[in-house]
Design brief:
13 strands, alpha/beta, 11 helices, globular, about 325 residues, single chain
Amino acid sequence: MEKGQITEMEKEAKIYVAGHRGMVGSAIVRALLKEGYQNIVTRTHKELNLCRQADVEDFFAQERPDYVFLAAAKVGGIMANQEALADFMYDNMTLEMNVIHEAWKCGCKKLLFLGSSCIYPRMAPQPMPESCLLTSELEKTNEAYALAKISGLKYCEFLNRQYGTDYISAMPTNLYGPNDNYHPLHSHVLPALIRRFHEAKVEGAGEVVCWGSGTPLREFLYVDDLADACLFLMNHYSGNETVNVGTGKELTIRELTELVAKVVGFTGEIKWDPTKPDGTPRKLLDVSKLAQLGWKYRVELEEGIRLSYEDFCNNPMRAER
């Protein structure tokens, strides 16, 4: 579909946000409400288990949403991915196939599938263009999750090619922000650092030990910027190829760690445990495609970390997870 043919979501359209309680889904809901979309459909996991095909089929037959943002996923950091390889693959592949398939069956106008930058090869060219997908081996520490996300992306592409649907996918870089998971073992690096340095500060600890060497390079995007990009893509993009969403900026894990310590107010020593895994050496997205479409991020990293730390401190349930 040519860009000139793309129509924006109608303000009164019924929009289903799958995973609305998660960090990404809740940000998409905030962005929709901010832009005047009121007819938003949500379900908690208790109300609708997306891994159960019959339940998802009943939901779509009953609600028949016009648009779908598929932000639901089983996520976690390096340790969580290594401990539950089968669970990460099964849960993610099952829920995304159920949602995408039923959206197609009920005639959904458009769907946005959210993946992750971990879908790209471990030794992909840097920055990573969308075209490098499936060109070489994946990073082993998150291979199961990546394979599931690649399957969802490809299913959207294949539906477009076979049935003429308008299903698109976006691949965000590392995300952080309100409603993040701060679990001490199962969270991603940035929220894990926020919790670790906060607890060290409160306890008066003299040092904090961090995983790996601190040398890997990473890119981080504030989740409300991602949500804004999702709405932008839903209203301005159609195509089979995924779209990278990021800042185009990177820093070392060591630099990130020092920045988080600064924001949190931890003044002790930072040590490194080289026996722990680093993960992918470098992971920077090529965001030129999204830039050419006319979108750019707004929140700089230090400001975003401050906002995230406020969220952590002001939400006891999040802090306890």
